[in-house]
Amino acid sequence: MNEKANVSKELNAKHRKILEGLLKLPENKECADCKAKGPRWASVNLGIFICMQCSGIHRSLGVHISKVRSATLDTWLPEQVAFIQSMGNEKANSYWEAELPPNYDRVGIENFIRAKYEEKRWVPKDGIPKSPPRGQDERASVVEQRHVEKGGHGYANGPENSFEERKKVRASRIKESRRVVMSVPGPPKGPEEVF
Questions:
Q1: Distances in Å between the alpha carbon of 94 and those of 26, 31, 43, 66, 136?
Q2: How many CB atoms lie within 10 A of CB 115?
């Protein structure tokens, strides 16, 4: 069954206002990948806002890597809105671009996006993302704690994650959610898959 059909017009309007507010935040005013101003699309499982050109490239990556939605036209599920609230471009890029050289030339944007998300070329070698500015970190950790407590799984979907690894990650995330403040934000995680 299509879960989006269960989203009422009122809830959809509420989600739209939340997304509009997120797009006005300084960290989301430009595309997470090419830095174009005024993104209106999003990858709901990466938690980023992107421009129309990059949204087409993200669609070509496949839904196992990036699930693209319009931030202004599509219906969003509550868990998708909650996740993008907890992530955003700055926090996501602190993971995906942690090892990206300064002033990296993004000419050939499709190759850049494929290297970033398929090859994971610039993710931190030690698995610890660069910390976003203090205000962003505190806001995101509170939302992330709520997300984990309400059933957020705390791991990215993918063939590299075995069942046992996911069980261990989930157990550690539940323990972390009981702490008052998380010291370092975790890597980007998508909302639970809904079938």
A1: 15, 14, 16, 18, 11
A2: 14
